[in-house]
Amino acid sequence: MTYMTINTSPTPPEAAVDLIIDQAGKTFPTPRGPVVALAPISLKVTRGSFVALIGPSGCGKSTLLRMVAGLEQPDDGAILIRSKHPEQFRKEGELGIAFQDPALLPWRNVFANVAFPLQILGRPIKPNNEKIRALIDLVGLKGYEDALPSQLSGGMRQRVAIARSLVSDPSVLLLDEPFGALDQILRRQMNLELQRIWAARQTTTLLVTHGIDEAVFLADEVVVMHAKPGRIAEIIKVPFARPRTPDLFSSPEFHALCDTLTAALHGPGAAA
Ligand SMILES: Nc1ncnc2c1ncn2[C@@H]1O[C@H](COP(=O)(O)OP(=O)(O)OP(=O)(O)O)[C@@H](O)[C@H]1O
């Protein structure tokens, strides 16, 4: 007997785009003359996706993230997040930001550090007590609510910074080398933690990293950048199913994709 398959499902709607970077570039004036941090670049990031940016030092990764955060203005082109200007989006608490330096307030305990953005946004802390505790729990720091930053390890401080970046329920998360200062073992633990948090919240995430393996493990798409001037060289899709588990790190497919990325980093046009 033969069966005929009839596909009655409607054509899936095109995924919503959270971030549109349209020909945005940045040149800094310096005493030695203008430095082109980024030639005009364009990029679209789909809602709920995880995008990693990798590239050599000085290729403009942080400049790009700072422009998306509205902390730096592009010289030309435009950046829109959910149709809003980045600065407006950030001021509405829709952007979560965590950079390499966790920049915790040393006199505030974990709870108060995580709660801090709410204060900045003028939102009351008390009705959010449960949410703040749940976030501290989410990053694996239950029981440390009253600890001061000086009483925490580097990895724990990074987790506080990640909890803090999520407290305003942002729809877009920007992470600039958040695990750069951590050793390899802790970094892998944090990669798993970040994947879990991202999967639980489906927050559109942009991660700047120097770690090719970190990018491949976490991202749906890796944006490979070249320097002099900073620009996008290639965008490589990561096909691995989720949730990704630590054994992925030792699979041949994983290593093959890391090799592809390494080749793209050093490919034609890459500055020496
Ligand atoms: N405020 C600034 N004034 C002058 N030049 C700047 C400024 N910020 C960045 N640059 C220059 O722009 C270029 C890109 O810098 P950026 O920090 O974005 O690179 P990056 O890819 O994040 O580097 P790294 O991986 O080392 O952090 C570099 O040449 C840098 O010196």
List keywords for this structure.
nucleotide-binding; disordered N terminus; 2 domains; alpha/beta; binds adenosine-5'-triphosphate; ATP-binding; 6-stranded mixed β-sheet; Rossmann fold; 272 residues; AAA+_ATPase
Summarize the structure.
Residues 19-252 form the ABC transporter domain. The protein has eight helices and nine strands.
How is this structure best described in words?
- There is one protein chain.
- By secondary structure, the chain is of the alpha/beta class.
- The chain has 2 domains: 40-94 and 172-266, Rossmann fold, CATH 3.40.50.300; 104-169, no CATH class.
- Helices cover 32% and strands 23% of the residues.
- The protein contains 8 helices and 9 strands.
- The chain has a 6-stranded mixed β-sheet with strand order 5-6-7-3-8-9, with helices on both faces. The chain has a 3-stranded antiparallel β-sheet with strand order 2-1-4, with helices on one face.
- Strand 1 (17-28) and strand 2 form a beta hairpin.
- Helix 7 packs across helix 8 (252-265).
- Mean pLDDT is 89; it is low at 1-9.
- Bound molecules: adenosine-5'-triphosphate.
- Adenosine-5'-triphosphate binds at residues 28, 30, 35, 37, 55, 57-63, 230.
- Belongs to the ABC transporter superfamily.
- Residues 19-252 form the ABC transporter domain.
- It comes from Kaistia hirudinis.
- GO terms for molecular function: ATP binding; ATP hydrolysis activity.
- This is NitT/TauT family transport system ATP-binding protein.
